Amino acid sequence: MVKKECFGYDESPYNPGKYVIEIKHENLPLKGTRGSYNILCARLMNLSYPQYLRMCRDQFGAEIVGKGHLYPVAYFKKDKLLFQFVKLLNARANLALLDRGLEEEKDVHNERDFTEV
User: Fold this and answer.
1) Residue 95, SS3?
2) What is d(CA 65, CA 83) in angstroms, rounded to the nearest whole number?
3) Cβ–Cβ under 8 Å, residues 33 and 43
4) Number of H-type helices and E-type strands within the chain
5) At 21, which helix (H) or strand (E)?
6) Can you tell me the mean pLDDT for 88-113?
7) Tens digits of per-residue pLDDT, 17-71?
8) What three-state secondary structure class fits 47?
9) Are 82 and 19 in contact (CB under 8 A)?
10) What angle do CA 70, 40, 47 make, to 5 degrees?
């Protein structure tokens, strides 16, 4: 499987000099969401959104902005911690895509087994 870059970073238009995690939708086959895309990274890390924000702050030096709002956001400095975090998110996303592909392949094989009987 070819590894895809599903996440990157982009400078915040609201907080110049700080960076936010960017989802590369063209590489992440999602049909949509019933909530916010903000929680996608948390779910990939198997964390709740508050746990994810604490991890961003404590492990990757992010500043959390928007406390008391629906979705606070993690803002990062452009440094090696941000690069490591993006690399981690991409690795988790590729693992999820691989698992999804294996499940879809398994479903196709199971469906074929039943139709051939």
Assistant:
1) helix
2) 20
3) no
4) 3, 4
5) strand 19-23
6) 69
7) 999 999 998 888 777 767 778 889 999 999 999 999 999 999 999 999 997 777 8
8) coil
9) yes
10) 85
